[in-house]
Amino acid sequence: MKHVILGAGPAGVIAAETIRKHAPDDQILIVGDEPEAPYSRMAIPYLLIGDIAESGTHLRHAGDHYQKLRIGLQRGRAVGLDTAARTVKLEDGSSVGYDRLLIATGSSPATPPIPGVAGPGVHSCWTLADARAIEAKAKPGARVLQMGAGFIGCIIMEALAARGVKLSVVEMGDRMVPRMMGPTAGGMIKAWCQRKGVDVHTGARVERIDREASGAMKVKLSDGQVLDADLVISATGVKPNIGFLEHSGVRCLVGVLTDEHLQTNVPGVYAAGDCAEAFDKVSGTTIVSAIQPNAADQARVAALNMVGQAAELKGVTQINVLDTLGLISASFGHWEGLPGGEHVELTEPDAATGGRHLSLQFSGDRLVGCNAIGWTQHVGVMRGLVEGRVHLGEWKDRLLADPTQLMAAYLDAAQAQAAHAHYR
């Protein structure tokens, strides 16, 4: 049996290792489109901060790791898939045959169509090549403008601030982290960043980037302001790498649509990671949730099914925990609420610490989503209640009256639900 894995990120590597563990004689090939050893993009900010060297981004640190496991590594970019012939066409014109295929191609930066964005001095922060270019220019005192203040953007912002640059951030949404945080929480994160010396512009977008003879840039915003920059970082979101699947017969919505086994509509073809759209039991819909824990879980489930061992994905984790210049925030499930649901908010401003904020969203007697700032001791409880779909009973009304009682509610309601399930 020959297993071909498209993508050398965490999903691809974990899938290959899982296949090898359960199918010691099968052939395994990982096809990646970068010249580097397989690495984690989430480690790049730590590289920029200086906490690790480039080797620290590698997913596996032993130089002979893949060779020992008899996992082949090949550089190439998929440009087409023939599911009838079971072949993947690569950019160099060659083809790779497979018996089982895992699509783990991840995602790529979604760069906005702005005049001047394609010129020198503008970079994404997505690859090791990007990191090298940023390191060369993001010196102490350099004027850096970052487009985007979403989840990934805030992680990049943290790394840039640690390098001592003069940082400006432009976010077209009305608040920071708009896809993770509600208005109050997003506003608190903005206020905290500004107190930490970051110039934050929300409700604005970059309209054009002009260059001077010196290489410096003039960045015009939609509100009429013009900001000077030596370096521009584009962190305006990502999109799944699924273009090569056009005309392949593999069904895609936002990402590659999969079932509970991570198999696509084409037998023998699976998907995992940032490019996969998997079924989420909490929301009852298929979603792309581009976080590394999901990539790992999906990779293991897909790999087991690829070697004939039935396995199902328990669900897609809808969780983001973010450290923004020392302010910890978290988002779970349907943080924006559901139609007909109830909610409660508690906000405790504190300029010195960034304050605390708790927003709980209910559907019936279940907690279906929440936003939190500064409530680090409750992160595990929030996740347990949301993902466990715990029936709160009378505890829902208690939480509506006092949302700080999350721990007590979890210990009582979750344990009661677990005991009931055990004795059924």
Structure, explained:
25% of the residues lie in helices and 29% in strands. The chain folds into 3 domains: 2-108 and 239-306, FAD/NAD(P)-binding domain (3-Layer(bba) Sandwich); 122-236, FAD/NAD(P)-binding domain (3-Layer(bba) Sandwich), CATH 3.50.50.60; 326-423, Enolase-like, domain 1 (2-Layer Sandwich), CATH 3.30.390. It has 10 helices and 26 strands. Helix 1 links the parallel strand 1 (2-6) and strand 2 (27-32). With 424 residues, the chain is α/β, with parallel strands linked by helices.
How many domains make up the coordinates?
3
Largest sheet: 5 strands, parallel
Total strands: the figure is 26
Sheet-strand content, in percent, reads 25-35%
CATH fold-type name of the largest domain = FAD/NAD(P)-binding domain
Arithmetic mean pLDDT: 93
What is the correct CATH architecture of the largest domain?
A: 3-Layer(bba) Sandwich
Share of helical residues: 25-40%
Distance between the termini: 43 Å
Strand-pairing-aware structural class: alpha/beta
Can you list the strand order of the major beta sheet?
Answer: 3-2-1-7-19
What assembly state would you assign to the polypeptide chains in this entry?
single chain
Low-confidence stretches: none
Tell me the Rg in angstroms. Answer: 23 Å
Shape: globular
Please report the number of helical segments. 10
The CATH superfamily of the largest domain is identified as FAD/NAD(P)-binding domain
- Name the CATH class of the largest domain: Alpha Beta
